[in-house]
Amino acid sequence: MTAPATPAQPTPRQPALTHACARCGAPVPLDVGLCERCNPLGLKDSASSQVHGSVILAVGVAIAGLAIAAHFAVAGIGPFTAKVTEMHPGSTNGTVVATISVTNEGTAAGTATCKVSDPADRGIDNSDIVYSPRVAAGATITFDHEARFGSVDRPFSVTCTGP
Question: What global pTM score does this model have?
């Protein structure tokens, strides 16, 4: 007598790989973008290169627009001329206070970025970057800067630039 044959087990089917419909979220095959309900005529989907190209174009236009806006925001500010008008000892030992005069030769108000340095050091080791107060177009302002280098006997050199 032979053993009874075991019934054949059906092979489990792998579920089809799907992703969500681009409009409604219903599951669709990987090679389809829209489900039957959202695309009843079966129209061809747009190519990914078209979608990516549109996004890259939009980003490029946005960057160009921001660059143009930034240019108009700072147009007319500067150039700035600056000089040290006075030097005196600072409030703490070893510091020097320089009174700096800045003139805005431009047509719009703005703030200057100034480099204050000891001319004997050629600005390599002993220099500070200082932002001036707002200077109106064609106006001159003075402000003090306290530095931890230099001496009262030797005036600092100062150069200022705009944005």
Answer: 0.60
